[in-house]
Amino acid sequence: MRIGELAARTGVSERSLRYYEQQGLLVSDRTPGGHREYPERAVDRVIRVQELYAAGLHSAKIAQILPCMRDEDGGPSVRATPALVTELVTERDRIDRMIDDLVRSREVLDEVIETASGRVAP
């Protein structure tokens, strides 16, 4: 599929897809006319990259992680190094702290909403 179709199917801009390719996160072939051609599995790859970005990881870290992740055609092609596993545990702990902070913020907002609407919190 061409870059426009991949962008439409994933909701990711063509510019971002080009960036992913520059960073080694996505691979395309080129037509004789120089257009990018992506395999069907690129849709899953782009979605996975988006999920990792949403988790707060940067492109260099994502490039390290992707070969260690299970793809639709089987297991990972590379095992994560102990150092990478340690870094990923640190990232997971950071995400857990963010989740805890968000839950506390939601609880505060719930209290304000209840107070503002004249209800008393249980």
TrEMBL record:
Pfam families xref list: MerR_1 (PF13411)
Domain HTH merR-type: 1-68
InterPro entries in alphabetical order: DNA-bd_dom_put_sf (IPR009061), MerR-type_HTH_dom (IPR000551), MerR_fam (IPR047057)
Keywords for the protein's UniProt record, in alphabetical order: DNA-binding
Entries under SMART domains matching the protein: HTH_MERR (SM00422)
PANTHER family noted in UniProt: MERR FAMILY REGULATORY PROTEIN, REDOX-CYCLING DRUG-SENSING TRANSCRIPTIONAL ACTIVATOR SOXR
Protein name, per record: MerR family transcriptional regulator
Organism (species): Streptomyces racemochromogenes
